[in-house]
């Protein structure tokens, strides 16, 4: 009787493990899902993706430029012309963000900054300040600094590969940032 019970339990355990292994997705599958979600989000919003950054720096209300890093950016206001310099502390605020995978599945929830009165910040040129466990700061926020100045406002579609720590390592979650503003360089 013990051998029979042991055999049945062993078979059940093996079946459970094999089923659970088949249900988990590979990193490549998750990244493909992310790419499809971004494409659908772009299509749902009738965004036009530009191959080249506009020479005059002016974007129409539905135009986005895709950088070589995979970031989609739309400049709403290019700022005051002052560019960030190496070792400047850069402060950033945004109105809200959305998880793109959720939006394309019909969930229009928005997420406000954790502390709207306290901007997020990083030191330009010090990559260790670009991402942490507790901050939404990410590589995607650094990329636009080559195009815009202090006071700039933009909308961003951020793939997880250049997103925050949480988006990149825990969720493989692309994010849309609305009205991200560079509020201070110093």
Q: What layout of secondary structure does this protein have?
A:
Elements: H1 2-23, H2 27-44, E1 48-50, E2 63-66, E3 72-77, E4 89-93, E5 96-99, H3 100-104, E6 120-123, H4 139-142, E7 153-158, H5 165-171, E8 175-185
Parallel strand pairs: 1-2
Antiparallel strand pairs: 2-3, 3-7, 4-6, 4-8, 5-8, 7-8
Characterise the protein shown here.
With 186 residues, the chain is an alpha+beta fold. The chain has a single domain (26-185), classed as Chitinase A, domain 3 (Roll), CATH 3.10.50. Helix content is 30%, strand content 23%. The chain contains five helices and eight strands. Strands 1, 2, 3, 4, 5, 6, 7 and 8 form an eight-stranded mixed β-sheet that branches. Strand 2 and strand 3 form a beta hairpin. The chain is globular and about 50 Å long. It starts with a helix and ends with a strand. The model is unreliable at 12-20 (pLDDT under 50).
Compact overview of the structure:
With 186 residues, the chain is α+β, with helices and mostly antiparallel strands.
Number of domains: 1
Total number of helical segments? 5
Order of helices and strands: HHEEEEEHEHEHE
Please state roughly what percent of the residues sit in beta strands, choosing from under 5%, 5-15%, 15-25%, 25-35%, 35-45% or over 45%: 15-25%
Spatial shape: globular
Please count the beta strands (DSSP E, at least 2 residues each): 8
CATH architectural grouping: Roll
CATH class identity = Alpha Beta
Structural class: alpha+beta
Largest sheet: 8 strands, mixed
Poorly predicted spans: 12-20
